[in-house]
Amino acid sequence: MDVRVRDLGYVYPTGVEALRGVTLDMASGEAVAIVGQNGAGKTTLVKHFVGLLRPTRGDVRIGDWDTRTKSVAQLAARVGYVFQNPDDQLFSRTVGQEIAFGPRNLGLGESEVRARVAAALETVGLADQVDRHPYDLMQTQRKFVALASVLALDTPVVVLDEPTTGQDAAGVERIGSIVERLQAQGKTVIAISHDIDFCAERFPRVVVMGQGRVLLDGAAGDVLARAEVLAQTYVEPPQLARLALRLGARRAPRNVVEFLQVVREEVPFT
Amino acid sequence: MIALDAVTYTYPATAQPALREVSLSIPDGQFCAVIGANGAGKSTLCYALSGFIPHFFRGELSGRIRIDDVDTQAVSLAELVQRVGLVFQNPFNQMSGAKFTVREEVAFGLENLGVPRAEMQTRIARTLERVGIADLADRSPFALSGGQQQRVAIASMLAMDPRVLVLDEPTSQLDPIGAREVFETIRALIEERGTTVILAEHKLEWIAAFADRLVVLANGRIVMDSSPRQVLTAPELERYHIGAPRYVQAARAAREIGLWPADRDLPVTLDEATEGFSSSSSLNSTRLDLRNSRNSGN
Question: What is the pLDDT of residue A267?
């Protein structure tokens, strides 16, 4: 489902102007990473997608819905939002109940709810934790519970806020493959992340934000090569891209295979 | 010096120990990084080193934990905070909840230590400047982004100037350059103050660039303990579910197709990787070899 943001401005009640005219189109089947320094406006932007914030100016459309005319509950049927801090999101006594909460609220029958809970837990690798109390799990596992509760809603748009924080290599790999699967299912996947290597490897499109504006928006290989613009918002190109750029490349390789290609084809030698 | 001697620890109401027979001695002024898969025991080790085990988390502890000549089990947590500071993984848990501005929050620990007011103000100003949040001094700690809160948590500990600083994934919510700056700040602190630093992290690039020593935990045990270079280029790292650093991955893959010389050490930093890939003696001659072998039809 398309997400269309038009000249979005947002001023917090404290007077902080967090968004200063953001225009962005994201389509079904796209995986988009949003990067930028702490305080750049990334989370403020995506909170508009689920109606947690309302535009000061401009508008946001989720499919044919203008978010200003829809409640948070209505928008939850279209946009699943995994919070940065899972503790902002989890409240049930067991992992199973936590994940069942959303589908039940959508009015699904018990057997369908059970099937969705099982499938979501399987996807995040917590099938054996269904009866545990969420707070008995490690923080990184709680993040997977929060992710599973959103997967179980099966929304056409999925927003992930800092999905890889604190995850080890296996966890990052699992999240990456979930992103790719959601994208293959035709969903619109949007992630906010400081993990720039993860963004490069898993997201074909990267949006760079700084001071409430979009600084860059395009294919990961192009955007992540713009070191001087990235630095304005406290982001560096991914490790292999920095290496390739130092060696004279013009594109940012997204992974080891691309790096070797870039080194072979692009790096000038005398 | 901070030392663990055969430390085994089990959390309350759990069956398996989170730390098993861990012995680790860290001399003054050393920057020791700790890595491991989730659940390997990194946070538990941080709690044990900072006295939160056994003073805050109960459970079952055997073995000894000493900071210089003080047994951490023999003194209270209040006495320990003057020697060792812990920066929590989740900065929200670090906030006192009793203060309305960042400046007051950072002052909280100093007030408890009885630092005179004038010195307190100097220290706070210097620390906020140092971690790049001078402009947030009058903001509420709870109206900040995760990354900003993380800097406040780091500042709160740095202001107390502990001899030993323990940090549990202190950069997890920081923007990329912010994360590097935290490592730079820690390194500078060690050079200036001789602080001993233990840091649990996943960011291998900055560990390689800044740490003196790297310990790998798996299932509550220390399984590797060496220089970052030794550890990060070791093939067995994978066995402990830790991916090799990107530069190591790239050089290994390049070595297989002759783009990285077989006799050259694998690179763990950007500089080493740049040097290795751009040195004419390796890359250019190998390219030539490849071209020759292609021409000769092999």
Answer: 64
* Contact list, B278 vs chain A (CB under 8 Å): 246-247
Beta carbons of A169 and B92 less than 8 Å apart:
no
Contacts of B255 in chain A (CB under 8 A): none
- Alpha-carbon gap, residue A230 to A85, rounded angstroms: 25
Pick the closest to residue A76 from A119, A47, A45, A97 (CA basis).
Answer: A47
Q: Which domains does chain A have, with CATH numbers?
A: 1-78+155-234 (3.40.50.300), 92-153 (no CATH), 238-270 (no CATH)
Query: Could you name the CATH architecture of B2-240?
Result: 3-Layer(aba) Sandwich (3.40)
Q: Do A263 and B277 touch (CB under 8 A)?
A: yes
B264-284 CB burial, b ≥16 within 10 A, e <16: eebbbbbebbbebbbeeebbe
Tell me the pLDDT of chain B averaged across its residues. 88
Which tens digit of pLDDT belongs to each residue from A92-108? 889 999 999 999 988 89
- A-chain CB neighbours of B173 within 8 Å are 38, 84, 162, 165, 194
Taking the CA of residue B165 as centre, how many other CA atoms within 13 Å lie in the half-sphere pointing to its CB? Answer: 29
CA A134/CA B72 separation, integer angstroms: 31
- pLDDT of residue A187 exceeding 90, the answer is yes
Residues on chain B touching A238 (C-beta within 8 angstroms)? 246
The two three-digit tokens of residue A53, written as one number: 């914030």
Chain B residues whose beta carbon lies within 8 Å of the beta carbon of residue A197: 246
CATH 3.40.50.300 boundaries in chain B: 2-240
- φ/ψ of A94, rounded to 5, equals -130, 160
Q: Let me know: does B42 contact B217? Beta carbons within 8 Å.
A: yes
| Max Cα-Cα span within chain B | 80
The per-residue pLDDT of chain A, averaged, comes to: 93
Query: How far lies A222's CA from each of A128, A216, A226, B5, B210, in Å?
Result: 42, 10, 7, 52, 30
> Are A14 and B143 within 8 A, CB to CB?
yes
Confidence at residue B291, expressed as pLDDT on a 0 to 100 scale: 45
Q: What is the pLDDT of residues B82-107, one digit of tens each?
A: 899 999 887 777 777 778 899 999 99
Helix, strand or coil, per DSSP, at residue B165:
strand
Structure tokens at B3: 């030392």
Which of B38, B169, B175 lies at the smallest CB-CB distance from A37? B175
Interchain pair A84, B173: CB under 8 A: yes
Closest Cα in chain B to A259:
B250
Q: Under an 8 Å CB criterion, which residues of B touch A?
A: 36-39, 89-90, 92, 143, 145-148, 169, 172-180, 202, 205, 241-243, 245-247, 249-250, 253-254, 257, 259, 270, 273-274, 277-278, 280, 283-284, 287
